[in-house]
Amino acid sequence: MSPNSINLTPLASLKVSRHYIPRHISIPNTSIQNKPLLIYHQAFNPSSQLTPSGIEEHIQGVGMFIPQWRYTVYRTTHFHSTTHELLVVYKGRARLLFGGEDNPGKVEVEVSKGDAILIPAGVGHRLLEDKEGGFEMVGSYPVGAAKWDMCYGKEGGSENADERISKLGWMDVDPLYGREGPAVES
Known about the structure:
Helix content is 11%, strand content 28%. By secondary structure, it is mainly beta.
């Protein structure tokens, strides 16, 4: 695998945001594993020929995650209790919300083509606004992970989610950069 095959930003030049989001009602966020939501700003050069298949090939080449879909983000806050999730934007710009609407510790961020987001299990997320129309990403999950579930953070609707999240391991290989990278450092 050639890390520059689709113009991956060199690690030394990569800007990363790390967000620890407190539990809010039944949305665990980063409270259980204490691993941050990671936003890799312009992980891929947005002016390059960035395609979904190129992103998928890169992710598969690193070997930590398996791409499973091309789509947008649901407009309803949800989280996964069985797996972490990697999103890579290949088209458009959008405003995303992490942590839950009424959470004082929520994170709102605008992402665009070339950005990647590593969402730890338990972190609520949703689309707030598709800024240009047609916002799309590649969604990937760790190799060997259980099928991703959909939890909505409603009282009584996410039984045993905390327990499932606490049993998940974290990665010793960054899903985009390999042996080094933001996920390994977290």
